[in-house]
Structure prediction request, 171 residues.
Amino acid sequence: RQPDRSGHQRRGRRGDVLVGRVASDSLSIGLVGCGGMGRRHLHAYRALRQVGVDGFGIAAVCDPLVAVAEEAAHLVEEFLGAEPAVFCDHEELIASGAVQALDVVTDPSTHHRIAVTALDAGLHVMCEKPLGVTVRGCRAIVDAAERSGAVLATAENYRRDGPNRLARAVI
Prediction:
């Protein structure tokens, strides 16, 4: 394994392909969980576009509440210019082939079921914190990522906040 620019170890299989694809092509993302935190993630995707990051698209949104999923789809269209497909079941979204990656922003008790299914299907996964509510659930997610070679990330936004970066620099 080779360390990337941040010093983290990066897998030599599909993880490296993903990094190259983001730079030149568009990574198709499915947002699973369109409630409050899901909408916050959509605002973050809009902010990325506003600063020139355009190597991604939100190709699908998924929420068990149809109205919530449709509202998120309209936000995606407003923010990013293309209305995504709407799903009410994450398994249908994963099976559809519409996305290359999932952004999992659901209740933490469901993270392991969604992430393992997606990773086993070869999709890359970013999962909102906490990764899982039990060690067993977290282990299942990590094991699925290792089996598939797909990229797994946990959205630990406070790690990258300005005050925390400053604290790290001072220490």
User: Anything to note?
Assistant: The CA atoms of residues 46 and 80 lie 7 Å apart.
